[in-house]
Write a structure and sequence with these properties.
single chain, 11 helices, zinc, ubiquitin-protein transferase activity, zinc ion binding, transmembrane, membrane
Length: 312
């Protein structure tokens, strides 16, 4: 597939550990997809609230459910999240020499898989809900909805005062981990990977070959299922896989489109854009190409050259 080789460099490397630019790029991928989809849903909901208002009201839950299906599919099929697989990366179980040579097509072990899903899907959902709660409490505090002496107001004022420091400590934890990763002092650029018991590595040629042959093997296994239970399980897995594949294809196209828009509107390409989109310079007026004795101009200066009537 194209995404397996789109971001893999051709330079030979001794270590399979990706660079800081690769890991930061894959981290920012899903971060950019969420607000883009949210804006699309908002526009649809404003244009037709009766049909699309539901998706706007429950956007966080719907997005989390779709993200769960997508990430579970990729983690179990490619040992990587969608963004990691897009950049040619995989998750390798740490502290286990038996799983070090594990191919990406084998998927993550169940323990690391569910930990990864929790940090990839559940944690961002809780963070979004917490930010919305903080925003709502700040609005209540500004308009003084609760009495000044109420315990609830004292509690959420203390919460609002402590939240910036907690958030700063959280972001600082990630920043320190990235600095340690750049200096070669850590195997993980994110503490969440360490908590999940995995690290990131590049896809090898064997991994890519195994991923390309896996769909054919899966279809052969589905044909061999004969019992009713196995057929039901196979049908459900096929349906879930189809949904995840549709999401993957749509996101892949959307990501390429977002990258194109980012390049198109970047400051470095403004001169190129102007040269491509600017209208040609209009030619000079036709009457300037003729001399004063041109037949297009009236002989008498008292006659208007436009309406051909005598000036008053």
């Amino acid at each position: 597939m194209a995404e397996h080789g789109a971001h893999i460099t051709t330079a030979a490397v001794v270590d399979d550990q990706p660079s800081i630019f690769e890991v930061v790029a894959q981290d920012s991928l899903m971060t950019a997809v969420r607000p883009a989809l949210q804006h699309v849903v908002k526009v649809l909901a404003e244009s037709n609230p009766a049909h699309y208002g539901f998706f706007w009201r429950w956007f966080d839950e719907i997005f989390t459910l779709l993200d769960l299906l997508l990430q579970q599919h990729y983690l179990s099929k490619t040992s990587a999240s969608f963004s990691e697989n897009f950049y040619g990366l995989k998750r390798i179980v740490t502290g286990d020499t038996h799983n070090f040579q594990r191919l990406a097509s084998a998927g993550l072990p169940k323990k690391q898989l569910w930990k990864s899903i929790m940090f990839l899907v559940l944690l961002p959902y809780l963070k979004v809900k917490l930010e919305k709660l903080v925003s709502s409490l700040r609005e209540e505090d500004e308009y003084s909805i609760h009495p000044p002496s109420s315990r609830w107001k004292q509690f959420y004022r203390a919460f609002l005062a402590a939240y910036p420091f907690v958030n700063m400590a959280w972001e600082g934890w990630f920043l320190v981990q990235q600095l340690r990763y750049i200096l070669g002092k850590a195997q993980h650029h994110s503490p969440l990977l360490s908590l999940a018991g995995v690290r990131l590595g590049r896809l090898t040629a064997q991994d890519i070959q195994a991923l390309e042959h896996k769909p054919a093997e899966a279809s052969m296994m589905q044909k061999s299922a004969r019992s009713v239970t196995e057929k039901i399980k196979s049908t459900l897995k096929k349906a879930m896989g189809g949904i995840a594949l549709s999401l993957s294809t749509g996101l892949s196209v959307g990501v390429f489109f977002l990258q194109f828009l980012e390049w198109w509107y970047s400051s470095e390409n403004q001169e190129t854009i102007k040269s491509l989109t600017a209208l040609p310079t209009p030619p000079p007026p036709v009457h300037l190409d003729y001399n004063s004795d041109s037949p297009l101009l009236p002989k008498m200066k008292t006659v208007c050259p436009l309406c051909r009537k005598t000036r008053a």
